[in-house]
Amino acid sequence: MKHTEQLTKYVGNFIDELVKGEMTDVVISPGSRSTPLAMMFAEHSRIQHWVHMDERSAGFFALGLAKSQQKPVALVCTSGTAAANYYPAVVEAYYSRVPLLVLTADRPHELRDVGAPQAIDQMDMFRNYVKWFQEMALPEDSSTMLQYVRSVAARAYHTAKEGNAGPVHLNFPFREPLLPDFSLDNVWGEEGYTSHHSLSSGKRTLDKWQLQQLKEQLSHYKKGLIVCGPQMNHRLIEPIVQLARHMQLPILADPLSQLRSGLHDKDLIIESYDAILKNEAIRVKWKPDFIIRFGAMPVSKPFTLMLKSNPNITQFIVEDVEGYREPNRNQAQFIYADGSELCNQLVEHAHTWNFDKKWLSMWQRANEITKACLIEDQHAKPLMEGHVITNLMENAPEESAVFIGNSMPVRDLDTFFMTTPKQIEVYANRGANGIDGLISTALGVAASGKQVTLILGDLSFYHDLNGLLMAKQYQMDIRIIVINNEGGGIFSFLPQANHPNHFEVLFGTPLHLDFEKVVHMYGGNFTSVDNWNDFSEVVDTSFRQHALNVIEVNTDRQTNVNWHRDKWYTIEQALNDLLETYQ
Quick check: bond before 177 cis, omega within 30? Predict the structure, then answer.
């Protein structure tokens, strides 16, 4: 009985401390060794617990929930390879700066490395992909140990969310018996206990001397670009827009920047810059003197090529806390300061600069021309992958969310997602750029109450079919648009496509699967569409059904490649005429 009391109060105080820190959600995968954590999380009245059978999908589900809530979500699993299945989601969380609290149950020390079942080395198993690891002490209920477990809970929660957010891993060794006793007094700790969650942190800002230096440096330039890459800070949107307005500079807005949608002014937003910069002549002749970048590196490959071919462009890369996100290894000046505050500081000095007005109008005109080329046939047959984006945005309701898959879908989003006054959040897993766990992550976003539309390819859909279980278990509202081109469509744009002897087996990888049967197995609705009227009708209906809806859009890889290349050629010709005007 003494062991059970120690176990119950130890775990109870740990969970209660997380609740005091405002944790509200935990994702649990069933197992025996994790019984104390699982049952006590489920028992706490202020914790929403989600149960997922597959740890790999569970990790991504928690990732999506944490992305949406922008606060730590806990993961609980048993010992052994269960914890190893979290690895892809932990890696993604680390690189995309999403706070997770990974709680792995373990065998006690005497059962390690002696051939006991379901026992692997879980010590610091995620290595460089967590912000902090702690091997927890064996449960005790002395006042000293209850203070200890609360302090670790508080530290873990704050470490996950403070600075650049990310995952934290705590490993819990438990001896049998594993069942807690909820009949005990003070299961969650003594009344009136003062929480450890009394930490506070401030924003980084440039001091007066640093700001003066930046101001003087900018005064030597005429042509600049403000770039906003993937980021989820909605407080940053208006300050960036105001900075661009005062500086009279174009904003190259990544599709994941949250700048292409909403009620803010979009006159200076260049959403078609990826298509514009596919023109090599423009990359050469329209070289900016400087770039101020907020957020992660943009999705756009042509933007990257512009930087690679012009390594002397002065880059100011703004990071709220810290980081080194410059994959080209070009010279860059990193500004570690709160992005919103920096914009406000620079606006105060904007009258001292005299940037080239012709430069701005040139980008705006190029954007108009390019957009016209991209959307001119958006309702024509056959269905084209890029226009799935433009047609979806026409049908998506206010305050909904779009989750975009990697490989081809995110690149089509970059090209075909035009600015809109609708308030639509856009999510993706761009930390490690993988195709795994996309269904689960999107469902995690949907779990926060948002109406989510996931767009992904057939390979990505297949890769995470287990994730659909959560939609069935919790009757979740999500529509999934599957671009089915029978394989890896993005490889058709790469040099591998020029090697037909090996292309289909190694890169094309057609699945030849009937997804309708799978969707029905999970209780969802399945529709395959072959024209835009049906597409719009099915999407519109799905937003009223509040259920799992899978919409399959069948396309042909080679037709899609040819169509995209025709678009690029048309845009290039139109922009070449503009180049002559702005010599």
Answer: yes
Residue 190 lies in a domain: no
Integer angstrom CA distances of residue 192 from 186, 196, 291, 453, 520: 11, 13, 53, 45, 51
- Put simply, whether the predicted model's pTM sits higher than 0.90 gets the answer yes
In this structure, are 406 and 453 located in the same domain? yes
Q: What's 454-466 look like in SS3? A: EEEEHHHHHHCHH
Q: Is 140 helix (H, G, I), strand (E, B) or coil?
A: coil
Residue 184 domain-assigned (yes or no): no
DSSP-based three-state secondary structure for 419: coil
* Tokens standing for residue 19: 């609740």
Both 475 and 515 in a single domain?
Answer: yes
Assess whether the previous peptide bond of 382 is cis (omega < 30° from 0). Answer: yes
Three-class secondary structure assignment of 111-128: HCCCCCCCCCCCCCCCHH
pLDDT digit string, tens, across residues 111-137: 888 988 898 999 999 999 999 999 999
Question: Other C-beta atoms within 10 Å of 562: how many?
Answer: 12
Q: Residue 201: is its pLDDT beyond 80? A: no
Phi, psi of 455 (to 5 degrees): -115, 125
- What distances in angstroms separate CA 342 from CA 59, 211, 316, 320, one per listed residue? 35, 9, 12, 10
* Helix ranges restricted to H, 435-487: 438-446, 458-463, 468-473
Statement to judge: residues 302 and 401 lie in one domain: no
What's the DSSP call for residue 506? Answer: I
Q: Which domain holds residue 250?
A: 208-372
